[in-house]
Amino acid sequence: MDGNGRWAKTQGKPRVFGHKNGVTSVREVTEAAAEIGVEFLTLYAFSTENWSRPTIEVNALMTLLVETVKRELSTLNKNNIRLQAIGDLSRLPEKTRLALLEGIEMTKNNSRMTLVLALNYSSRWEIVEAAKKIAAQVLNGELAIDQIDNGVFSNNLTTKNIPDPELLIRTSGEHRISNYLLWQAAYSELYFTNVLWPDFRKDDFYLAILDFQNRERRFGKTSEQLSEIT
Ligand code: FPP
Q1: Mean pLDDT of 155-176
Q2: Is 110 an annotated catalytic residue?
Q3: Where are the extended beta strands (E) located within the chain?
Q4: Domains in the chain: ranges and CATH
Q5: How much is the pLDDT for 38?
Q6: Scanning 5, 29, 57, 74, which has the fewest C-beta atoms within 10 Å of its C-beta?
Q7: Euclidean distance between CA atoms 90 and 122, whole angstroms
Q8: How far apart are CA 167 and CA 101, in angstroms?
Q9: Cβ(205)–Cβ(33) under 8 Å?
């Protein structure tokens, strides 16, 4: 969800104004995704690197998260949407963590779509943590080194029960992955748009989906092999 700060700047407003308006885009995309049958939608809301932003911006983001989760809880339940989170939640301010955990608990039985918030998340952190967990399992004899494979690795990531993303959208004209779902995005289709996040609406989301539908996903195979299968 990139471009909040630049969007605010174009209006002569502080960066936080961009984040506040970004919440409207969060609502739009969540609604659009659920409507068209997306099963998992993951939003990169705060990276482990974002702590180095000015304190006033970090605090505002944490407060915005609490307010948004609390305010949207009944809408999530009404629409049968389950809330989940990935990242190191233990380092979040207590108020933010508690609001989040409450949201996760109150929506845990919903089944139409899962909305995953990546919070205090970064791929390198997650991969290092997975390596530590696997090493501990080897050390205590639960796992042999030869048993470590893609499946074991995936199961030790914070996305354990979340399928790999089919499509990864980045807004604001930046062409980077920025430490996001590096393992999981191995075969994701990447879509970049110049639209700044607070301007991102349902139609922008549909454009990304239409683009995705015209991609040929080969997963390392040739086009000919794919047409033999289908
Ligand atoms: C990146 O834009 C955006 C963020 C770091 C925060 C995104 C958070 C929200 C939209 C708030 C609410 C989210 C939820 C899920 C309730 P930037 O600040 O890096 O923009 P810039 O690149 O223009 O400076």
Answers
A1: 98
A2: no
A3: 40-47, 81-86, 113-121, 167-170, 189-192
A4: 4-121+170-179+188-229 (3.40.1180.10), 122-162 (no CATH)
A5: 98
A6: 74
A7: 14
A8: 27
A9: yes
